[in-house]
Design goal:
The protein has a five-stranded mixed beta sheet with strand order 2-1-5-8-7, sandwiched between helices. By secondary structure, the protein is an alpha/beta fold. Strand 7 and strand 8 form a beta hairpin. The protein has a single domain, classed as Collagenase (Catalytic Domain) (3-Layer(aba) Sandwich). The termini are far apart. One zinc ion (ZN) binds next to helix 5. The site of one zinc ion has 4 residues, from helix 5.
Length: about 250
Amino acid sequence: MPRFQKYEQKIRRYKDKLKKLITRIGISYTDEFELDNEIPKKLLLPCHIGILFFGEYDKALFEKIKHYLTQVFDSFFFTIRNLGTYNFSFELISKGVKTEYGEIKKTSGRIKIHPTNKFYQILINKRIEENLGMIIAVTDLPLYSSSDDNILFLFGETHLKHRCCVISSLKLKEQFYNRLANFKIFEQRVIKEVIHEIGHIILGPDHCLKNSCVMRFSHDVKKIDEKSFDFCNNCKTKLEQIRTQHNF
Ligand SMILES: [Zn+2]
Ligand SMILES: [Zn+2]
């Protein structure tokens, strides 16, 4: 019936509009509207990887990250690409934001923290668009976990299925603890956390118990400083096995 068709078309149009809106907002509170994209096909290795920055970073930081990734992951990546700086729209920056008291700087009052899903949605779209196997975000914004909103001010998180991860550099700065800025230490921490989260995408969610291993879980910056940039022998063996499975 033509009248029916008219309604059907109207509903379809609204549905598309809604879908677009959700993709743009990149955050939703119900499971139904959780990350908008399909789970990607099985990861093929080696792959291309990209790093997207949210915030102002020294230009040399990317090169340093790239240098370390090439060393520790060896032949896992065809290319390591700098995807540049992402600029949030005014609308998107406030989406999903919670205000919480900072853990350490209690005197500075409440600060705005952002859900990891907001970053994941941007990263998923970018990963598809740029044809990347995996993608990573480095942001100076404070984060909370979209899968568990009790986890606040996290250093980093990985979405294994969507093969993307996000690092918050805020708490990696010495200034956050009311100490003198130290750029070298800051960079080292960012690099370790980047390697750690990419390690999760490749090796899975488990943490390593070896103190010096980059896959060790870090509760605080002291623990990050204590660990090395590299994988322990046990984790290296696992990487080797993956290499063999993928024939490279
Ligand atoms: Zn971890
Ligand atoms: Zn290990």
